[in-house]
Amino acid sequence: MLVIEGLTRRFGTKAAVDDVSLEIPAGSFVGVIGRSGAGKSTLLRLINRLNDPTAGRIRFGDRDVTALGGAALRAWRADCAMIFQQFNLVGRLDVLTNVLLGRLNKVSTGTSVLRLWSADDRAIALSALDSFDMGSFAHQRAESLSGGQQQRVAIARALVQEPKILLADEPIASLDPRNTKLVMDALQRINKEFGITVLCNLHSLDLARAYCDRLVGMAAGKVVFDGRGFDLTDDVARRLYGLEAGDVVDETVPTAPVAAREKAFA
Amino acid sequence: MRADTLPRLDPTVRDRLERGYLYATAARRRRMLVGFGLLVVSILLAGWIAEVQPAKFFANFGSFTKYIHDILPVLHLDAADTGIAEWYWGWKRWLRLLGETLLIAYVGTLVGALGAFLLSFLAAGNLVRSPGLRFAARRFLEFCRTVPEIVFALIFVVAFGLGPVPGVLAIAIHTMGALGKLFSEVVENIDMKPVEGLVSTGAGFVETVRFAVLPQVMTNYASYMLLRFEVNVRGAAIMGYVGAGGIGQDLLEAIRKFYYTDVSAILLMIIITVVAIDMLTETLRHRVLGAEGAR
Ligand SMILES: Nc1ncnc2c1ncn2[C@@H]1O[C@H](COP(=O)(O)OP(=O)(O)O)[C@@H](O)[C@H]1O
Ligand SMILES: [Mg+2]
């Protein structure tokens, strides 16, 4: 179980994540929703410790994640794999190597730096790739693939980390509808077949309702909703997005100063 | 769509936005002007303090051209071969010294680039969180490149004696400083997404550099290294002035002892070599960068 207690992260004076407390049981598929700037990405990055919290605690089992450093921190990161909106693959390396990078925490630096991957690791990586229909792309440079393909490579990389948790930061925000379904199905399989807890930031309410067994709504860094998909009434959705629930889109042109918009939910 | 059908902002809002825009850009323009003015003033000031006197340059231009004229050999068309043989009487020795010069530049560049390679990652602000370590790496590189290589060479000649070793060391240290700075700037301009991707998997610093940074910087590193080799060939040519090996010693001797035609013979050899090296490394550099673009 992942337990988050009073987690806060400030950038300057602004709290991107503001006193968030959550309990996430093992094996659940949680969707984190909210508009752009609500603090969803920061929350996931805090859990992986790509950002350090200003206050609060994260616990996983008997590990105090917020207190980790050095090798223990790297081991934790391997345990909570992360996939990103922009895939974050190494574009100039081939697909198989990208997936093998997910095994780095499990091999010694000396052998990995020389690319002396074991036959076992290669087999694991190839079968992970193949299970997302990407086996035949193993030799291609990652940057030559389409977005949907790259995201599936990223999911394969996450899987070979043998993680306990998978954090997905808007994994489908730059994909077309067909690839959206492929990637969401892949996440679902990881959750159902491997029992890995999935925490997924999403923009689209429909997708969140369809795939997640629990939704966490964020606004201005705070959790403003926590429940099942059908509990999320149109009224709550409007409160979350400040828009018609039907057209939940990224606002590119703010109509009022940011501070004023954010106070609405404070 | 016709322009008059486009929406117009409410005048009060428009005025506010417009004022903000003008205010912001005016500040930028002012800064530019002040900066330019300061530049001009400091150029004039520097010239005045350093007593740069253009008039003196023009007054003495004649003695400079006379020197050029004096060092040129007198060649007659009907006996050009014997004339050239006489002019290049010491070609065997000069060629050997020129080869030594190239080797000094080559080894110095390699050793220096290796040091620069290792330090560049520590000096890069986007990779190293510890400000202390970054500060130390940067100041060290700064020291290595601010001290002129000829000064290092002088010190090493005193320490290690005459010969090419002090030349190599001097060039290596200066190269480490100069390339380390360039390399770390290459690192600071990389795409950080792959780096985050790797850090998120639990990879350590060395692995992150190896797999997320190196693939992005290798071609630029190679290109800068070749460029530095060109510079170092020129640098190595004067190492002999302080007894640190290469052709420089013979050139200096020829100048000091007024062996006029020797000066021009050696100079010509150096110029041809430098031009050849420049052309070679330029082709190589374009090949390296071209391979990058084609991928
Ligand atoms: N590295 C950062 N530096 C400064 N501000 C940041 C940084 N990362 C996020 N923020 C701010 O924190 C808030 C939450 O951002 P984020 O977590 O990316 O939101 P979301 O993912 O929900 O769109 C935003 O207002 C954003 O501007
Ligand atoms: Mg985000």
From TrEMBL, chain A:
<dbReference type="InterPro" id="IPR012693">
    <property type="entry name" value="ABC_transpr_PhnC"/>
</dbReference>
<dbReference type="InterPro" id="IPR050086">
    <property type="entry name" value="MetN_ABC_transporter-like"/>
</dbReference>
<dbReference type="InterPro" id="IPR027417">
    <property type="entry name" value="P-loop_NTPase"/>
</dbReference>
<keyword id="KW-1003">Cell membrane</keyword>
<keyword id="KW-0813">Transport</keyword>
<dbReference type="GO" id="GO:0015416">
    <property type="term" value="F:ABC-type phosphonate transporter activity"/>
</dbReference>
<dbReference type="InterPro" id="IPR003439">
    <property type="entry name" value="ABC_transporter-like_ATP-bd"/>
</dbReference>
<dbReference type="InterPro" id="IPR003593">
    <property type="entry name" value="AAA+_ATPase"/>
</dbReference>
<dbReference type="GO" id="GO:0016887">
    <property type="term" value="F:ATP hydrolysis activity"/>
</dbReference>
<dbReference type="InterPro" id="IPR017871">
    <property type="entry name" value="ABC_transporter-like_CS"/>
</dbReference>
<keyword id="KW-1278">Translocase</keyword>
<protein>
    <submittedName>
        <fullName>Phosphonate ABC transporter ATP-binding protein</fullName>
    </submittedName>
</protein>
<dbReference type="Pfam" id="PF00005">
    <property type="entry name" value="ABC_tran"/>
</dbReference>
<comment type="similarity">
    <text>Belongs to the ABC transporter superfamily.</text>
</comment>
<keyword id="KW-0547">Nucleotide-binding</keyword>
<dbReference type="GO" id="GO:0016020">
    <property type="term" value="C:membrane"/>
</dbReference>
<keyword id="KW-0067">ATP-binding</keyword>
<feature type="domain" description="ABC transporter">
    <location>
        <begin position="2"/>
        <end position="245"/>
    </location>
</feature>
<keyword id="KW-0472">Membrane</keyword>
<dbReference type="GO" id="GO:0005524">
    <property type="term" value="F:ATP binding"/>
</dbReference>
UniProtKB/TrEMBL annotation, chain B:
<feature type="transmembrane region" description="Helical">
    <location>
        <begin position="150"/>
        <end position="173"/>
    </location>
</feature>
<keyword id="KW-1133">Transmembrane helix</keyword>
<feature type="transmembrane region" description="Helical">
    <location>
        <begin position="103"/>
        <end position="129"/>
    </location>
</feature>
<comment type="similarity">
    <text>Belongs to the binding-protein-dependent transport system permease family.</text>
</comment>
<feature type="transmembrane region" description="Helical">
    <location>
        <begin position="258"/>
        <end position="277"/>
    </location>
</feature>
<dbReference type="InterPro" id="IPR035906">
    <property type="entry name" value="MetI-like_sf"/>
</dbReference>
<keyword id="KW-1003">Cell membrane</keyword>
<keyword id="KW-0472">Membrane</keyword>
<dbReference type="GO" id="GO:0005886">
    <property type="term" value="C:plasma membrane"/>
</dbReference>
<dbReference type="Pfam" id="PF00528">
    <property type="entry name" value="BPD_transp_1"/>
</dbReference>
<keyword id="KW-0813">Transport</keyword>
<protein>
    <submittedName>
        <fullName>Phosphonate ABC transporter permease</fullName>
    </submittedName>
</protein>
<feature type="domain" description="ABC transmembrane type-1">
    <location>
        <begin position="98"/>
        <end position="281"/>
    </location>
</feature>
<dbReference type="GO" id="GO:0015416">
    <property type="term" value="F:ABC-type phosphonate transporter activity"/>
</dbReference>
<dbReference type="InterPro" id="IPR000515">
    <property type="entry name" value="MetI-like"/>
</dbReference>
<dbReference type="InterPro" id="IPR005769">
    <property type="entry name" value="PhnE/PtxC"/>
</dbReference>
<feature type="transmembrane region" description="Helical">
    <location>
        <begin position="32"/>
        <end position="50"/>
    </location>
</feature>
<keyword id="KW-0812">Transmembrane</keyword>
